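User: These chains co-purify. Model them together.
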Amino acid sequence: MNIGTYTYEEYVHLVKSFHGSLAPGLLIGGFMVDMAMKNLPEGEFFDAICETPACLPDAVQLLTPCTIGNGWLKVLDFGRFAVALYDKENGQGVRVFLDMKKLKRYSEANNWFLKLKPKNEQDSTLLIGQIKEAGHDLLSLQPVRVDPKSLQREKMGPVAICPACGEGYPARHGERCHSCQGGSPYL
Amino acid sequence: MNIGTYTYEEYVHLVKSFHGSLAPGLLIGGFMVDMAMKNLPEGEFFDAICETPACLPDAVQLLTPCTIGNGWLKVLDFGRFAVALYDKENGQGVRVFLDMKKLKRYSEANNWFLKLKPKNEQDSTLLIGQIKEAGHDLLSLQPVRVDPKSLQREKMGPVAICPACGEGYPARHGERCHSCQGGSPYL
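Assistant: Joint model of the two components:
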Protein backbone atom coordinates (compact mmCIF):
# COMPACT_ATOMS: atom_id res chain seq x y z
CA MET A 1 0.00 0.00 0.00
CA ASN A 2 1.55 3.25 -1.14
CA ILE A 3 0.69 6.83 -0.20
CA GLY A 4 1.66 9.10 -3.05
CA THR A 5 5.14 8.04 -4.13
CA TYR A 6 5.97 6.73 -0.64
CA THR A 7 5.53 3.39 1.03
CA TYR A 8 3.27 3.44 4.10
CA GLU A 9 6.34 3.32 6.38
CA GLU A 10 8.10 6.14 4.54
CA TYR A 11 4.99 8.31 4.79
CA VAL A 12 4.64 7.65 8.54
CA HIS A 13 8.30 8.62 8.98
CA LEU A 14 7.80 11.85 6.99
CA VAL A 15 4.68 12.75 8.94
CA LYS A 16 6.39 12.29 12.29
CA SER A 17 9.33 14.39 11.16
CA PHE A 18 7.24 17.23 9.68
CA HIS A 19 4.03 17.27 11.71
CA GLY A 20 5.46 15.97 15.00
CA SER A 21 3.29 12.87 15.45
CA LEU A 22 1.23 10.39 13.45
CA ALA A 23 -2.07 12.16 13.97
CA PRO A 24 -5.05 10.13 12.65
CA GLY A 25 -5.95 13.11 10.45
CA LEU A 26 -2.57 12.99 8.72
CA LEU A 27 -3.06 9.33 7.91
CA ILE A 28 -6.57 9.82 6.51
CA GLY A 29 -5.22 12.94 4.80
CA GLY A 30 -2.47 10.92 3.15
CA PHE A 31 -5.02 8.54 1.64
CA MET A 32 -7.19 11.49 0.56
CA VAL A 33 -4.38 13.23 -1.31
CA ASP A 34 -3.28 9.91 -2.79
CA MET A 35 -6.82 9.26 -4.08
CA ALA A 36 -7.16 12.78 -5.47
CA MET A 37 -3.83 12.60 -7.29
CA LYS A 38 -4.72 9.26 -8.84
CA ASN A 39 -7.95 10.75 -10.22
CA LEU A 40 -6.78 14.12 -11.45
CA PRO A 41 -7.97 15.24 -14.86
CA GLU A 42 -5.20 15.68 -17.46
CA GLY A 43 -3.13 18.80 -17.06
CA GLU A 44 0.23 19.72 -15.69
CA PHE A 45 -0.38 22.32 -12.99
CA PHE A 46 -2.80 22.02 -10.15
CA ASP A 47 -3.59 23.92 -6.99
CA ALA A 48 -5.00 22.50 -3.76
CA ILE A 49 -7.80 23.40 -1.38
CA CYS A 50 -8.04 22.08 2.18
CA GLU A 51 -11.43 22.62 3.74
CA THR A 52 -10.03 22.58 7.27
CA PRO A 53 -6.84 23.98 8.82
CA ALA A 54 -6.56 20.91 11.08
CA CYS A 55 -3.96 18.33 10.04
CA LEU A 56 -4.98 17.99 6.39
CA PRO A 57 -2.82 20.88 5.06
CA ASP A 58 0.30 19.00 6.16
CA ALA A 59 -0.68 15.91 4.12
CA VAL A 60 -1.06 18.15 1.06
CA GLN A 61 2.27 19.88 1.70
CA LEU A 62 4.09 16.56 2.07
CA LEU A 63 2.55 14.82 -0.94
CA THR A 64 2.05 17.55 -3.55
CA PRO A 65 4.03 20.56 -4.82
CA CYS A 66 1.46 22.83 -3.11
CA THR A 67 2.48 24.65 0.09
CA ILE A 68 1.26 27.62 2.10
CA GLY A 69 4.38 29.62 1.25
CA ASN A 70 4.22 29.10 -2.51
CA GLY A 71 0.52 29.96 -2.59
CA TRP A 72 -0.65 26.83 -4.38
CA LEU A 73 -2.47 25.57 -1.27
CA LYS A 74 -5.49 27.43 0.07
CA VAL A 75 -6.92 26.61 3.48
CA LEU A 76 -10.62 27.25 4.07
CA ASP A 77 -12.22 27.29 7.49
CA PHE A 78 -15.22 25.05 6.73
CA GLY A 79 -14.12 22.41 9.23
CA ARG A 80 -14.97 19.75 6.61
CA PHE A 81 -12.45 16.96 6.19
CA ALA A 82 -12.02 17.34 2.46
CA VAL A 83 -9.36 18.19 -0.08
CA ALA A 84 -9.63 19.31 -3.69
CA LEU A 85 -6.99 19.40 -6.41
CA TYR A 86 -7.81 21.43 -9.50
CA ASP A 87 -6.28 22.78 -12.66
CA LYS A 88 -5.42 26.40 -12.01
CA GLU A 89 -6.27 27.42 -15.57
CA ASN A 90 -9.74 25.98 -16.05
CA GLY A 91 -10.75 25.09 -12.47
CA GLN A 92 -11.49 21.44 -13.33
CA GLY A 93 -10.59 19.06 -10.57
CA VAL A 94 -11.53 16.43 -8.04
CA ARG A 95 -12.64 16.66 -4.43
CA VAL A 96 -12.12 13.85 -1.94
CA PHE A 97 -14.06 13.89 1.32
CA LEU A 98 -14.38 11.78 4.42
CA ASP A 99 -17.66 9.95 3.76
CA MET A 100 -19.82 9.78 6.90
CA LYS A 101 -21.68 6.69 5.61
CA LYS A 102 -18.45 4.78 5.02
CA LEU A 103 -16.92 5.98 8.27
CA LYS A 104 -19.68 4.21 10.25
CA ARG A 105 -18.22 0.85 9.26
CA TYR A 106 -15.04 1.61 11.21
CA SER A 107 -16.17 2.01 14.82
CA GLU A 108 -13.10 3.57 16.39
CA ALA A 109 -12.50 5.94 13.47
CA ASN A 110 -16.17 6.95 13.66
CA ASN A 111 -15.89 7.50 17.43
CA TRP A 112 -12.78 9.59 16.93
CA PHE A 113 -14.05 11.85 14.15
CA LEU A 114 -17.50 12.44 15.60
CA LYS A 115 -16.08 12.75 19.13
CA LEU A 116 -18.36 10.04 20.50
CA LYS A 117 -15.73 8.96 23.06
CA PRO A 118 -13.63 11.06 25.44
CA LYS A 119 -10.06 11.30 24.14
CA ASN A 120 -8.60 9.35 27.08
CA GLU A 121 -10.87 6.38 26.30
CA GLN A 122 -9.81 6.17 22.65
CA ASP A 123 -7.82 3.14 21.58
CA SER A 124 -5.23 4.81 19.37
CA THR A 125 -3.71 1.54 18.13
CA LEU A 126 -7.15 0.35 17.01
CA LEU A 127 -7.88 3.79 15.52
CA ILE A 128 -4.70 3.93 13.43
CA GLY A 129 -5.17 0.25 12.51
CA GLN A 130 -8.69 0.87 11.23
CA ILE A 131 -7.64 3.89 9.19
CA LYS A 132 -4.72 1.97 7.69
CA GLU A 133 -6.97 -1.00 6.92
CA ALA A 134 -9.63 1.23 5.36
CA GLY A 135 -7.32 3.34 3.17
CA HIS A 136 -9.43 4.80 0.37
CA ASP A 137 -12.48 2.95 1.70
CA LEU A 138 -13.38 5.81 4.09
CA LEU A 139 -13.45 8.29 1.24
CA SER A 140 -15.59 9.40 -1.66
CA LEU A 141 -14.59 11.36 -4.71
CA GLN A 142 -16.51 13.88 -6.79
CA PRO A 143 -15.58 16.01 -9.79
CA VAL A 144 -15.57 19.73 -9.04
CA ARG A 145 -15.15 22.96 -10.90
CA VAL A 146 -13.44 25.62 -8.84
CA ASP A 147 -13.72 29.35 -9.32
CA PRO A 148 -9.95 30.05 -9.20
CA LYS A 149 -10.44 33.82 -8.98
CA SER A 150 -12.33 33.46 -5.69
CA LEU A 151 -9.22 31.88 -4.16
CA GLN A 152 -6.48 34.06 -5.58
CA ARG A 153 -4.15 35.57 -3.03
CA GLU A 154 -3.86 39.32 -3.44
CA LYS A 155 -0.52 40.23 -4.95
CA MET A 156 1.95 42.19 -2.86
CA GLY A 157 1.82 45.07 -5.39
CA PRO A 158 3.82 48.26 -4.81
CA VAL A 159 5.76 48.27 -1.54
CA ALA A 160 5.70 51.23 0.87
CA ILE A 161 7.67 51.91 4.04
CA CYS A 162 5.42 52.25 7.08
CA PRO A 163 6.04 55.63 8.78
CA ALA A 164 5.24 54.06 12.17
CA CYS A 165 7.39 50.89 12.24
CA GLY A 166 9.77 51.61 9.36
CA GLU A 167 9.15 48.26 7.70
CA GLY A 168 8.09 47.44 4.15
CA TYR A 169 4.40 46.60 3.57
CA PRO A 170 1.90 46.50 0.66
CA ALA A 171 1.06 50.12 -0.22
CA ARG A 172 -2.54 49.02 -0.91
CA HIS A 173 -3.03 48.50 2.86
CA GLY A 174 -3.14 52.28 3.40
CA GLU A 175 -0.95 54.92 5.04
CA ARG A 176 0.38 52.53 7.66
CA CYS A 177 0.87 48.77 7.72
CA HIS A 178 -1.95 46.61 9.09
CA SER A 179 0.02 45.89 12.25
CA CYS A 180 0.44 49.60 13.03
CA GLN A 181 -3.24 50.13 12.19
CA GLY A 182 -4.06 48.07 15.28
CA GLY A 183 -3.74 44.45 14.16
CA SER A 184 -0.57 43.68 16.06
CA PRO A 185 -0.52 40.48 18.14
CA TYR A 186 2.33 41.92 20.23
CA LEU A 187 1.61 43.43 23.67
CA MET B 1 27.43 28.95 7.23
CA ASN B 2 24.55 26.88 8.58
CA ILE B 3 20.80 27.49 8.40
CA GLY B 4 19.15 25.84 11.35
CA THR B 5 20.66 22.38 11.64
CA TYR B 6 21.40 22.25 7.88
CA THR B 7 24.37 23.31 5.80
CA TYR B 8 23.59 25.99 3.22
CA GLU B 9 23.57 23.37 0.46
CA GLU B 10 21.26 21.04 2.39
CA TYR B 11 18.84 23.90 3.03
CA VAL B 12 18.80 24.90 -0.65
CA HIS B 13 18.07 21.28 -1.57
CA LEU B 14 15.21 21.09 0.95
CA VAL B 15 13.73 24.37 -0.25
CA LYS B 16 13.73 23.26 -3.88
CA SER B 17 12.11 19.97 -2.96
CA PHE B 18 9.40 21.48 -0.69
CA HIS B 19 8.76 24.95 -2.11
CA GLY B 20 9.57 24.20 -5.76
CA SER B 21 12.37 26.75 -6.31
CA LEU B 22 14.98 28.70 -4.40
CA ALA B 23 12.88 31.85 -4.05
CA PRO B 24 14.86 34.78 -2.57
CA GLY B 25 12.24 35.00 0.20
CA LEU B 26 12.93 31.42 1.26
CA LEU B 27 16.64 32.18 1.56
CA ILE B 28 16.12 35.34 3.61
CA GLY B 29 13.46 33.42 5.55
CA GLY B 30 15.96 30.66 6.35
CA PHE B 31 18.34 33.20 7.87
CA MET B 32 15.44 34.82 9.77
CA VAL B 33 14.30 31.59 11.37
CA ASP B 34 17.92 30.65 12.10
CA MET B 35 18.49 33.98 13.87
CA ALA B 36 15.24 33.72 15.84
CA MET B 37 16.01 30.17 16.99
CA LYS B 38 19.48 31.17 18.14
CA ASN B 39 18.00 33.96 20.26
CA LEU B 40 14.99 32.24 21.79
CA PRO B 41 14.38 32.74 25.49
CA GLU B 42 14.63 29.58 27.61
CA GLY B 43 11.66 27.25 27.35
CA GLU B 44 10.78 24.08 25.57
CA PHE B 45 7.73 24.82 23.46
CA PHE B 46 7.34 27.66 21.06
CA ASP B 47 4.86 28.74 18.45
CA ALA B 48 5.58 30.78 15.33
CA ILE B 49 4.06 33.80 13.63
CA CYS B 50 4.70 34.75 10.01
CA GLU B 51 3.62 38.27 9.17
CA THR B 52 3.17 37.45 5.50
CA PRO B 53 1.78 34.41 3.65
CA ALA B 54 4.44 34.83 0.93
CA CYS B 55 7.37 32.40 1.06
CA LEU B 56 8.23 32.86 4.74
CA PRO B 57 5.81 30.21 6.11
CA ASP B 58 7.73 27.54 4.21
CA ALA B 59 11.04 28.51 5.87
CA VAL B 60 9.33 28.16 9.26
CA GLN B 61 7.80 24.81 8.33
CA LEU B 62 11.14 23.45 7.13
CA LEU B 63 13.24 24.66 10.06
CA THR B 64 10.98 24.45 13.11
CA PRO B 65 8.42 21.97 14.48
CA CYS B 66 5.68 24.51 13.62
CA THR B 67 3.41 23.80 10.63
CA ILE B 68 0.04 25.00 9.36
CA GLY B 69 -1.52 21.58 9.96
CA ASN B 70 -0.36 21.20 13.57
CA GLY B 71 -1.49 24.72 14.41
CA TRP B 72 1.81 25.95 15.84
CA LEU B 73 2.34 28.35 12.94
CA LYS B 74 0.04 31.33 12.46
CA VAL B 75 0.13 33.36 9.27
CA LEU B 76 -0.91 37.02 9.45
CA ASP B 77 -1.68 39.12 6.40
CA PHE B 78 0.41 42.19 7.31
CA GLY B 79 2.67 41.80 4.29
CA ARG B 80 5.66 42.52 6.54
CA PHE B 81 8.66 40.27 6.06
CA ALA B 82 8.98 39.23 9.69
CA VAL B 83 8.81 36.11 11.82
CA ALA B 84 8.31 35.69 15.56
CA LEU B 85 8.91 32.65 17.75
CA TYR B 86 7.39 32.75 21.22
CA ASP B 87 6.75 30.61 24.23
CA LYS B 88 3.16 29.46 24.02
CA GLU B 89 2.70 29.62 27.80
CA ASN B 90 3.90 33.11 28.63
CA GLY B 91 4.09 34.75 25.20
CA GLN B 92 7.75 35.75 25.58
CA GLY B 93 9.68 35.57 22.37
CA VAL B 94 11.75 37.18 19.66
CA ARG B 95 10.82 38.80 16.39
CA VAL B 96 13.17 39.01 13.42
CA PHE B 97 12.40 41.41 10.60
CA LEU B 98 13.90 42.46 7.30
CA ASP B 99 15.54 45.78 8.23
CA MET B 100 14.99 48.42 5.53
CA LYS B 101 18.09 50.37 6.61
CA LYS B 102 20.34 47.33 6.34
CA LEU B 103 18.71 46.20 3.09
CA LYS B 104 19.88 49.42 1.37
CA ARG B 105 23.47 48.21 1.56
CA TYR B 106 22.63 45.31 -0.77
CA SER B 107 21.54 46.94 -4.02
CA GLU B 108 19.98 43.99 -5.85
CA ALA B 109 18.20 42.70 -2.74
CA ASN B 110 16.88 46.21 -2.12
CA ASN B 111 15.70 46.47 -5.74
CA TRP B 112 13.99 43.11 -5.47
CA PHE B 113 12.15 43.67 -2.18
CA LEU B 114 11.04 47.22 -2.90
CA LYS B 115 10.24 46.36 -6.54
CA LEU B 116 12.48 49.09 -7.90
CA LYS B 117 13.30 47.03 -11.01
CA PRO B 118 11.00 45.11 -13.36
CA LYS B 119 11.29 41.38 -12.69
CA ASN B 120 12.82 40.65 -16.10
CA GLU B 121 15.67 43.08 -15.41
CA GLN B 122 16.60 41.46 -12.09
CA ASP B 123 19.93 39.68 -11.87
CA SER B 124 18.90 36.61 -9.92
CA THR B 125 22.44 35.28 -9.49
CA LEU B 126 23.52 38.60 -7.98
CA LEU B 127 20.35 38.72 -5.87
CA ILE B 128 20.84 35.24 -4.37
CA GLY B 129 24.56 35.97 -3.97
CA GLN B 130 23.90 39.16 -2.02
CA ILE B 131 21.37 37.47 0.25
CA LYS B 132 23.76 34.59 0.90
CA GLU B 133 26.62 37.00 1.59
CA ALA B 134 24.48 39.12 3.90
CA GLY B 135 23.00 36.29 5.97
CA HIS B 136 21.84 37.74 9.31
CA ASP B 137 23.19 41.14 8.24
CA LEU B 138 19.90 42.07 6.51
CA LEU B 139 17.96 41.43 9.68
CA SER B 140 17.20 42.94 13.06
CA LEU B 141 15.88 41.26 16.17
CA GLN B 142 13.62 42.54 18.91
CA PRO B 143 12.14 40.92 22.00
CA VAL B 144 8.35 40.62 21.87
CA ARG B 145 5.54 39.55 24.10
CA VAL B 146 2.71 37.91 22.22
CA ASP B 147 -0.90 37.69 23.32
CA PRO B 148 -1.28 33.94 22.64
CA LYS B 149 -5.07 34.05 23.11
CA SER B 150 -5.44 36.45 20.20
CA LEU B 151 -3.90 33.81 17.92
CA GLN B 152 -5.57 30.66 19.17
CA ARG B 153 -7.30 28.61 16.52
CA GLU B 154 -10.88 27.84 17.46
CA LYS B 155 -11.24 24.22 18.50
CA MET B 156 -13.33 21.91 16.35
CA GLY B 157 -15.71 21.33 19.27
CA PRO B 158 -18.79 19.10 18.87
CA VAL B 159 -19.21 17.72 15.36
CA ALA B 160 -22.54 17.85 13.51
CA ILE B 161 -23.61 16.34 10.19
CA CYS B 162 -24.64 18.98 7.67
CA PRO B 163 -28.21 18.29 6.45
CA ALA B 164 -27.33 19.77 3.04
CA CYS B 165 -24.05 18.02 2.10
CA GLY B 166 -24.07 15.15 4.60
CA GLU B 167 -20.50 15.85 5.79
CA GLY B 168 -19.18 16.42 9.30
CA TYR B 169 -18.56 20.05 10.38
CA PRO B 170 -18.17 22.05 13.61
CA ALA B 171 -21.64 22.34 15.19
CA ARG B 172 -20.74 25.88 16.32
CA HIS B 173 -20.93 27.02 12.67
CA GLY B 174 -24.74 26.80 12.73
CA GLU B 175 -27.42 24.61 11.20
CA ARG B 176 -25.43 23.99 8.02
CA CYS B 177 -21.72 23.94 7.30
CA HIS B 178 -20.06 27.16 6.12
CA SER B 179 -19.75 25.81 2.58
CA CYS B 180 -23.50 25.11 2.34
CA GLN B 181 -24.16 28.54 3.88
CA GLY B 182 -22.73 30.04 0.69
CA GLY B 183 -18.97 29.97 1.16
CA SER B 184 -18.29 27.24 -1.37
CA PRO B 185 -15.50 27.85 -3.91
CA TYR B 186 -17.05 25.21 -6.20
CA LEU B 187 -19.18 26.31 -9.17
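The domain at 2-151 of chain B is CATH 3.30.1330.130 (60s Ribosomal Protein L30; Chain: A;).
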